[in-house]
Amino acid sequence: MSLRRVSTIAVLILSLGTAVAFANSQAQQPQRVAQTQENLQRPRRGDPAGLMQALNLTQEQQQSLQRIRQQSKPQMDQRKQALRQAHQELRQMMQGTASTDEIRAKHQQVQQLRQQMENLRFENMLAMREVLTPEQRTKFAELMQQRHKKSHNRGGRNRREAIGSDS
Fold it and tell me: What is the H or E stretch that residue 132 is in?
């Protein structure tokens, strides 16, 4: 599985955790969300509540996912900030008078921070995966595949338009 695909899945699982927090604030929901035709529709990007409905999570699952997200959030935030800072420093070094070796070292630091973020996302995804039933995992994988295809098709079209291709 490619790093990009793992990253996409991890981000979406983190989004799922956000949806869990939102859903828990809406505690008036029944123990299980009834599966209707609407619930079976593919959730829109940025609509984690739709993803939760499509997966038909129990309250316990929602709470578990929220706990996992809350536990990893401080580390994720710290890594994001460090990555932003290192990336900004790299941009400044590229514009300034830094030596090639200094720029390479900073680039290596940025790459290491990115890898740490990916590892943390992956571990988070594995923890969240354990909360889902086999059926929910299958449904989640299907939804992610649909989302990936849609974004890939849109991205491919945009790249062709950007370079002026008619095909």
Answer: none
Among 33, 7, 24, residue whose Cα is nearest residue 124:
7
Tokens 């090639």 belong to which residue?
100
pTM equals 0.59
Which residues, 6 or more positions from 112, have their beta carbon under 8 angstroms from its beta carbon? none
Q: What is the C-alpha separation between 111 and 82, in angstroms, rounded?
A: 12
pLDDT bracket for residue 160 (50, 70, 90): very low
CA dihedral 17, 21, 22, 28 (to 10 degrees): 130
CA dist., res. 133 & res. 61, Å (int):
10
For the chain, what is the domain count?
1
Evaluate whether 32 touches 56 at the Cβ level (below 8 Å): yes
